[in-house]
Amino acid sequence: MIAIIIPFFQxxxxxxxxxxxxxxxxxxxxxxxxxxxxxxxxxxxxxxxxVLRAEAGDRLxxxxxxxxxxxxxxxxxxxxxDPTTEIVAFLDSDDEWEAGHLDRVAAAWAAGAEFFFEDCxxxxxxxxxxxxxxxxxxxxxxxxxxxxxxxxxxxxxxxxLCRSPAIPSTVAYKFSAIPHLRFEIGLSPGEDCYFWLxxxxxxxxxxxxxxxxxxxxxxxxxxxADWGTVSEVKRLLGERRYRQLLCRLPxxxxxxxxxxxxxxxxxVDFWRAVLAATRRREYRHGRFVRSYLALQPSAIAQLPxxxxxxxxxxxxxxxxxxxxx
Length: 325
What we know:
- The chain is an alpha/beta fold.
- The chain has 2 domains: 2-216, Spore Coat Polysaccharide Biosynthesis Protein SpsA, Chain A; 225-321.
- The chain has helices at residues 15-24, 45-49, 52-56, 70-79, 101-110, 129-133, 156-163, 191-199, 230-246, 253-279, 286-295, 303-315; strands at residues 2-8, 32-39, 60-65, 87-90, 96-97, 115-122, 141-144, 149-151, 172-174, 206-216.
- Strands 1, 2, 3, 4, 5, 6, 7, 8, 9 and 10 form a 10-stranded mixed β-sheet that branches.
- A hairpin with a 4-residue loop joins strand 7 (141-144) and strand 8.
- The chain starts with a strand and ends in a 10-residue tail after the last helix.
């Protein structure tokens, strides 16, 4: 049995319908069950699904809860699973599976896979995610050409730490091997990568498909905040929390050094974002600054470097675009 979990919080109507329709359109012999978790969405799942509920029948369960965030919604879906569930697949409510996605998951599992992901493309990108992160098929071992399946040969832990090739809506994993693992509550972005990293000691056989199997939409998504906004300040705080959590994991020396460098760069980026938001007269970032300094009081030491970079960036702007620093 494949359990599919869709966390739902959207302000644009029609997105959930498309996501669920993409599941119903899968032509596969694999048994599946879909769980939609309405995370206090401004547009309710009940209003969105309409006739699709009748079409899905008992293969669809809708759970409603007060807004708790993406991790809490996914966890609520995991908590609701039947103990006999073998595989869990994720789909975000503004994304759509292309034809054959579940067939590729099933084929990977038949070959012994324990973790699966595939290529995808954002709605506003001119290239696929694998191209963006530099995943090269020649570095991996093909085992099922009909489904374009490969065994992942590099260090997947390293790959996720650097820039994860696994986007949530493409992922399926062996739930039965780690049924108690849950997403970190309150962490965003990075909640998915932190979850993937925690599966690695148990799930060793990693397969992926080179098929561009997911169309990624433009719904509510903190990872796509605009530079110079309070949302970007919040996103960078989330990234810093993720990097802090990585220190709990059994990192190798080179991985710890990479994480240390990332934190140093994040500190500068955070202050630059705060300065940019202030320049745009967005002043609602005080609580995020306090939270950031609570994580790392010494981060204030990177503020001068951020100011220098902000001044240099301002000098390079055309005069018509310059405003107060």
